[in-house]
Design a protein that fits this description.
- By secondary structure, the protein is of the alpha/beta class.
- The chain has one domain.
- The protein has 6 helices and 8 strands.
- It has helices at 9-15, 101-113, 131-142, 158-164, 184-193, 219-230, and strands spanning 16-27, 30-42, 61-65, 81-82, 95-96, 117-122, 173-175, 199-200.
- Strands 1, 2, 3, 4, 5, 6, 7 and 8 form an 8-stranded mixed sheet that branches.
- The two termini are 19 Å apart.
- The relative contact order is 0.17.
């Protein structure tokens, strides 16, 4: 039997489906491409026709990362709705999404613990693959009226957050948004909203609100991250 850390991307993709909710929105008069939630689900656990019911299925694991990066629907020509209000985000259908290396790391955790469904959200919904550009957008939006809405953890989206994150101590929240100091404001806001949750992560040395990203460049560091997460009391078995 192949150890879960040695599982290839193709094997993981065959085992798990990845479905996201994509949208576009105007913040301060500028249009931004966003993704609000990502569902990683074992293909045998849900029929394609039941995708839109995934919201009502409590996951085995919650995950909070930095932002959706270059995440995009499959096929890439999938129309992405321009919304006018926060309430419309949850009405947008889930669509098949191309997985990336970070999501494969989460899938390996799922395989190791027998989880069939993980729900991923981010500090920010902004789809920007270049970290310096993303952090610049976050800084710009701090000075824009309503700009905070790019984050699910802002006060304006509190009710949506409560619907997305299952309020159960039995469902751990895996946190891993990285070590950049420019994330501290969003990270602190997130942690305040998760104060009553069981958090699992690899803390950045010397920092109180930053947690190591699941997919560092070196494979040895990727494996070390997985090992540290699996040793956490809330998720270790």
């Amino acid at each position: 039997m192949i150890h879960f850390t040695a599982l290839r991307a193709k094997e993981l993709s065959n085992r798990f489906g990845v479905y996201g909710r994509f949208y576009r929105t105007l913040l301060g008069g500028v249009e931004y491409s966003c993704r609000s939630v990502l569902e990683l689900v074992e293909r045998s656990a849900v029929a394609t026709t039941d995708l839109q019911a995934l919201d009502r299925h409590p996951p085995d694991l919650h995950v909070v990362m930095m932002n959706p990066g270059s995440s995009h629907p499959v096929p890439v020509e999938t129309p992405i709705v321009l919304i006018g209000s926060l309430a419309e985000i949850e009405k947008i259908p889930l669509v098949p999404t191309r997985p990336d290396n970070t999501q494969y790391q989460i899938m390996k955790i799922m395989v190791a613990r027998g989880y069939r469904h993980a729900r991923v959200v981010n500090l920010s919904d902004l789809r920007e693959p270049k970290s310096p550009v993303f952090l610049g957008l976050v800084e710009r939006l701090r000075g824009v009226t309503g700009g905070e809405r790019h984050s699910l953890f802002c006060d304006a989206r509190r009710e949506a957050l409560q619907r997305i994150l299952v309020p159960s101590p039995e469902v751990p929240v895996l946190v891993g948004w990285g070590r950049h100091v420019g994330l501290k404001g969003l990270a602190q806001q997130c942690l305040e909203k998760l104060a009553d949750r069981v958090l699992v992560g690899v803390p950045v040395v010397g920092e109180s609100v930053l947690f190591a990203h699941p997919s560092p460049m070196l494979q040895s560091m990727k494996d070390a991250w997985i090992a540290a997460v699996l040793n956490h009391p809330a998720i270790g078995r």
